[in-house]
C-alpha cells in the first residue's frame, strides 16, 4: 500500500508518522515542524534573548548535534550567535571519536569550537583516572555521578572562556523523564526541586542554562537527524552500562507501552512539582573552598575532587552526607574554578 500524502503539504508522500500525534508527514514538513516547535519552546520560555552569545554543549552525540543544527537554523530569527563548547572528560576509546565528530560539525557549519579538558581543569583528574580510583570501592557505578558534576563545571568554564552569556544542552524529553524518575527513586528532593522547568536562570553568578529540546522526544530527535542527514557519534559511553540511569530508562520504555504519554507527563509533573515547606532544600550558600553556590559547606565538585585527592572516593560519592560535611577540604587542595550547583 503506498504511503498516504503528507498531512501538511499534501504534495509529497508521507515518510513517517509522528510518534506522539500519529500525524503522517514528509521528511521536509517534519523537520520544519520540529524546528518550529523548538523555536516556540525558546520564545515561549524566553530562554535566549536577542543578542545572547550561546555556548552549545557539544558532545558529538545525536542530541547536541540536533540542537546545534536547529539553533543554527533559528539563530537569525532569534538574533543569537553560537559557540560550540566540547568537554574532553578523558575517557579513552570513547571521547576522542566523539570529539572528532564535533570537529567535523564545527568545520561544516562554520561555528567556532572550544574544547576544555577535565585534566586541565581538575588538577590532572580524567574520568579514566576517576574510574580507576573508584574501582574496588564497590561504588564504580558512580562514575556517571562524578562525570555529571564535573562536566557541568567544565561546561561553565568553557562557556566563560568563549564569552558566552547563556549555555544550552541537548537534553531531550526522555533524558528529563529519566532524571525525574531517578530523583524520585533516590528520594532526592533537592534535585527534584531544582530539576523542573526548562533550565536555570543563573543563580549566584552562574551562566543561565536551558534545554531547548526538553519537550522533544528521543525518537523525533533521531528522525530529525536522519532527515537532515546529520553526522553524529552514536556509541554509548564506556561507563554508561554501570549507571543507574539505565534502570530508569528500561522502566520508562516498559511504561511507554501502556501509556505513550508517560515521558511528557513526567517532564510536566516535575515542572509543576512543589515541595512542602519542611522538605525545601537549605538556602544555597558559598562553598567554603571555591565560593561557588553550595547547599552544604562544600559544593558538589569540591566534595568529589577532595574525596578523590584524599584517595577516598567512597566518602565522596556515598550517601553519608553528614560525614562529608564534617570534612574540611584537604590543606592545599586545589579549588576547582567557580560555578554553581548542578540543577540537571
Ligand atoms: N563532553 C561533552 N561536552 C559538551 N557537552 C556535553 C558533553 N557531554 C554531554 N554534553 C551536553 O549534555 C547533554 C546531555 O548529555 P548526555 O550525555 O547526558 O545525554 P545524551 O542524550 O547522550 O546527549 P548527546 O546525544 O548530545 O550526547 C548533551 O546533549 C550535551 O549538550
UniProtKB/TrEMBL annotation:
<dbReference type="GO" id="GO:0032447">
    <property type="term" value="P:protein urmylation"/>
</dbReference>
<feature type="region of interest" description="Disordered">
    <location>
        <begin position="320"/>
        <end position="344"/>
    </location>
</feature>
<comment type="function">
    <text>Plays a central role in 2-thiolation of mcm(5)S(2)U at tRNA wobble positions of tRNA(Lys), tRNA(Glu) and tRNA(Gln). Directly binds tRNAs and probably acts by catalyzing adenylation of tRNAs, an intermediate required for 2-thiolation. It is unclear whether it acts as a sulfurtransferase that transfers sulfur from thiocarboxylated URM1 onto the uridine of tRNAs at wobble position.</text>
</comment>
<dbReference type="GO" id="GO:0002143">
    <property type="term" value="P:tRNA wobble position uridine thiolation"/>
</dbReference>
<feature type="binding site">
    <location>
        <begin position="57"/>
        <end position="59"/>
    </location>
    <ligand>
        <name>ATP</name>
    </ligand>
</feature>
<keyword id="KW-0067">ATP-binding</keyword>
<comment type="subunit">
    <text>Component of a complex at least composed of URM1, CTU2/NCS2 and CTU1/ATPBD3. May form a heterodimer with CTU2/NCS2.</text>
</comment>
<keyword id="KW-0547">Nucleotide-binding</keyword>
<comment type="pathway">
    <text>tRNA modification; 5-methoxycarbonylmethyl-2-thiouridine-tRNA biosynthesis.</text>
</comment>
<keyword id="KW-0808">Transferase</keyword>
<dbReference type="Pfam" id="PF01171">
    <property type="entry name" value="ATP_bind_3"/>
</dbReference>
<keyword id="KW-0819">tRNA processing</keyword>
<dbReference type="GO" id="GO:0000049">
    <property type="term" value="F:tRNA binding"/>
</dbReference>
<feature type="domain" description="tRNA(Ile)-lysidine/2-thiocytidine synthase N-terminal">
    <location>
        <begin position="54"/>
        <end position="237"/>
    </location>
</feature>
<dbReference type="InterPro" id="IPR032442">
    <property type="entry name" value="CTU1_C"/>
</dbReference>
<dbReference type="InterPro" id="IPR056369">
    <property type="entry name" value="CTU1-like_ATP-bd"/>
</dbReference>
<dbReference type="InterPro" id="IPR011063">
    <property type="entry name" value="TilS/TtcA_N"/>
</dbReference>
<feature type="binding site">
    <location>
        <position position="170"/>
    </location>
    <ligand>
        <name>ATP</name>
    </ligand>
</feature>
<feature type="compositionally biased region" description="Pro residues">
    <location>
        <begin position="334"/>
        <end position="344"/>
    </location>
</feature>
<dbReference type="Pfam" id="PF16503">
    <property type="entry name" value="zn-ribbon_14"/>
</dbReference>
<dbReference type="GO" id="GO:0005739">
    <property type="term" value="C:mitochondrion"/>
</dbReference>
<dbReference type="InterPro" id="IPR014729">
    <property type="entry name" value="Rossmann-like_a/b/a_fold"/>
</dbReference>
<comment type="similarity">
    <text>Belongs to the TtcA family. CTU1/NCS6/ATPBD3 subfamily.</text>
</comment>
<keyword id="KW-0963">Cytoplasm</keyword>
<dbReference type="InterPro" id="IPR000541">
    <property type="entry name" value="Ncs6/Tuc1/Ctu1"/>
</dbReference>
<protein>
    <recommendedName>
        <fullName>Cytoplasmic tRNA 2-thiolation protein 1</fullName>
        <ecNumber>2.7.7.-</ecNumber>
    </recommendedName>
</protein>
<feature type="binding site">
    <location>
        <position position="87"/>
    </location>
    <ligand>
        <name>ATP</name>
    </ligand>
</feature>
<keyword id="KW-0820">tRNA-binding</keyword>
<dbReference type="InterPro" id="IPR035107">
    <property type="entry name" value="tRNA_thiolation_TtcA_Ctu1"/>
</dbReference>
<keyword id="KW-0694">RNA-binding</keyword>
<feature type="binding site">
    <location>
        <position position="63"/>
    </location>
    <ligand>
        <name>ATP</name>
    </ligand>
</feature>
<feature type="domain" description="Cytoplasmic tRNA 2-thiolation protein 1 C-terminal">
    <location>
        <begin position="286"/>
        <end position="315"/>
    </location>
</feature>
<dbReference type="GO" id="GO:0005524">
    <property type="term" value="F:ATP binding"/>
</dbReference>
<dbReference type="GO" id="GO:0016779">
    <property type="term" value="F:nucleotidyltransferase activity"/>
</dbReference>
<dbReference type="GO" id="GO:0002144">
    <property type="term" value="C:cytosolic tRNA wobble base thiouridylase complex"/>
</dbReference>
<feature type="binding site">
    <location>
        <position position="175"/>
    </location>
    <ligand>
        <name>ATP</name>
    </ligand>
</feature>
